[in-house]
Amino acid sequence: MSIYTKPVSQLTTTDLQELLNDGAAENLRLEFKREVPDKQETLKKVSSFANTFGGLIVVGASARSSDGRIEALSGVAEQSGYRQKVVDWCFNGANPPLTVSVSDPLQIPTANGKVCYVISVPESDLAPHFLNGRKGIWIRTDEFSGRFDTQLANESEVRQLFDRRAAIVQRRTDLLARARERYRTYASNVQETKKVQPGATFEFSLVPRFPAVPVCEQQTLSNLITTTRLNWRQVGFPGINNNVISQHESAIVIQPARPVSMIEANVWGMLFYGAQIEAEQYLGDQHKGYAIHLHEFAGLVLIFIAHAAEMLKSLGYTGPLLLQTGLTDFRKAQWLYSSEGGPWMEVKAASGLDDQVLFSIESSTDDFQERPDGVAMDLLRYVFFSVDWPQLTTSKQLEAVVRSGYKFNYWEQPTALRV
Q1: How far is CA 355 from the centre of its chain?
Q2: Of 208, 36, 38, 43, which is closest to residue 133 (Cα–Cα)?
Q3: Residue 345 predicted with pLDDT over 90
Q4: How far apart are CA 325 and CA 363, in angstroms?
Q5: CA separation for the pair 205, 230 (Å, rounded)
Q6: What is the DSSP string of 219-281?
C-alpha cells in the first residue's frame, strides 16, 4: 500500500481510500484511531512504534474490534495546529524526545467536511524512549490478542532496546575521547615547537546526548565555525587570524583565544573547547610566576558557553546535551585573584592531590539560550570543589566570579544574571 512508501507530506485522499479498498488491518506498523487521541494516548502509541519497528497512526479511521480490520473512514473535525501540538507533545513528553511527522488534514472520500491525519513514526535508534512522569516504556506486540496492541515492555524487551541504543552511546563516548586526544596532540606540538611551558588545562565539550544522525555536512563546518564570531576583549572570538584545520568529520580552529587553545566542531553536533589556563602572571612585588588568573578563567568559561550557544543555533540542533568539563595538570597550579573586587591580587595555594578531573552534566540547548550564566555557575561550582576552593561555591560567590568574567571579557554588566 502506498501509505507505507510515501512521505506523509505527499499523502492524499486516494491513499486513504486505498486502505479501505484493500481492507487493511491493524498490525505491528499500523493503527487506526476513530477519535483524536489525547496527549497520553498519543505518546503511548508513538513511543511504542518508535521502540519497536516504527509505524503509522491513521486518525479518523475506525476498525473492527475482532480483528482490527478497517471498516470506515469516518473522519474527525479539523484540529487547529494539530501537527505542532503532536510534535511538541513528543519533544517534551518523552526521554529521549520522539521524532514524528504529521500529515496535513486529509479530506475523507465522502467529502463531508471531516478529515483524517496520518502520524508517521520512524523506528528509533535512540530507544528505549521513556514517557515522562514514570509512565514507562511502551512497545508494540500481539502477545495477548489477535490485534497488535501497545504494552509495557518486560525486562527482556527493555534489555534489547538498550542494546539498540548502545551503539549511539558508544559513538558519543568516542567523539569526546577523540576530541580530547586531538587537543592533547595539538598542545604537545605547540609546547614543543614554540617552547611554551606546559601548564594546567581546561577542557569544555558538549555533544547531543544521543548523536544518532549527523546535523550538518562537513564542508559547511569551516564556514560556520569562522563566521560565528562574538565580541570578546575588543578583538572578537574566535580570533580573526586563526588557522582552520579539516580533520575527519571535524573542523578545528587553532589558537582562538590563547597561545595554546583550540575549538573543534564536528558533523554530529559535538563542540569542544580547550585552553591552557596556567600562564606567567605577576604574583606580587613585580615577581612573575606561573598561575591561573581566576577572572580570566571565568571569562573563558563565559565565552566558550556563549560561542557554543551560537554554534548550536547555526548547526540547527535542538535538544538534550551532555556537557563534559575537565581539568588536567592542575595539582601544583596556583590561582591569582582579587578578593571582594579589590585592586590587590592574592595567590591561592595549589590544591595538592588530584592532577586531573573529568565531570559530566546533563543539559539542553534551552539552557544555553535561556540561562547561560547558570550553566557557567554550574561548571564553576564543580571546578572550585575540585581544586579545594569550596569558599567560592555559594551562589553569591559564584555570581561574583561570573561578573568578574564579564568584566574581563569587556562585556557590559547585566542587571541580573541569566541563571
Answers
A1: 29
A2: 43
A3: no
A4: 13
A5: 18
A6: GGHHHHHHH--B--TTT-BS-TT-EEEEETTEEEEESSSSSSEEEEEETTS-EEEEEE-EEEE
In whole angstroms, give the CA distance from residue 46 to residue 138: 9
How far apart CA 33 and CA 117 sit, in angstroms, is 10
Q: Residue 271 corresponds to which cell in the numbers above?
A: 563542540
* C-alpha–C-alpha distance, residues 267 and 245, integer Å: 14
**Per-residue pLDDT reduced to its tens digit, 349-362:** 887 799 999 999 99
156, three cell numbers: 527482556
Helix (H) / strand (E) element for 41: namely helix 39-51
pLDDT tens digits, 73-112: 999 999 999 999 999 999 999 999 999 999 999 999 987 8
Enumerate the domain spans of the chain.
Answer: 2-153, 167-408
* Alpha-carbon span 68 to 292, nearest angstrom: 69
Cell of 42: 498519543
At the topology level, CATH places domain 2-153 in 3.30.950
Q: List, for residues 219-260, the tens digit of each pLDDT value.
A: 999 999 989 999 999 989 998 666 899 999 999 999 999 889
Note whether 203 and 328 are within 8 A (CB): yes
Q: How far apart are CA 202 and CA 387, in angstroms?
A: 12
pLDDT of residue 35: 97
Which three cell numbers, joined as nine digits, stand for 207?
555533544
